[in-house]
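S2.1 Query sequence (NAD(P)H-dependent oxidoreductase)
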Amino acid sequence: MELIENLKWRYATKKFDASKKVSANDLQKLKEVVQLSVSSYGLQLYKVLIIENSEIREQLKPVSWNQSQITDASHLFVFCNYTEATPEAIDAFIEQTAETRNLDLERLNGYGNFIKEKLNEKTSEEKTSWLKSQTYLALGNLLNACAELKIDACPMEGFEPEAYNKILGLDKQGLNAAVIAPIGYRHDEDHTIEQQKVRKPMELLFDTI
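Output structure tokens follow.
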């Protein structure tokens, strides 16, 4: 299984080679992988920013614990969840489903109402957690695809979401920066390259019931 070997190869890259850039072709593949990610009900209530602009990344670095990956990586992926699961967003999804699958819209309205009812049962805190969690599903796909393409990546929560929201104008779009992932190519001087992976042994991680 090639995926296992790819996952053994990847690691959370701490130092990127700023001179190496991800090709447009590979970047398009990564975008398609993220687009195909699963999400609850299929809603995909998030947006992904791919930041190339060096000036913006210099602004983001101080609010990312001054980590060098922010500026040295080829690209910076910022996964942003919508702060609300609005009825309009659900209606748009139902309309897109009807159009894509050539179905009668009225046949799908019941499913749309079901989604709205289920989300309305959540507390405000539960909705916030649920919306943020959706981005991690897409992040996982990105990391796996990067490993297959031998592109390095580093998922990061070490940043200030509120500052990101302000710098990137996310507040005005009803978005929140949930998790980030610089991608690119490892630097030869990254001291973590040769470190062994530390993972729980199978007998502790799994139970068969």
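The longest strand covers residues 175-184. Residues 124-148 form the longest helix (25 residues).
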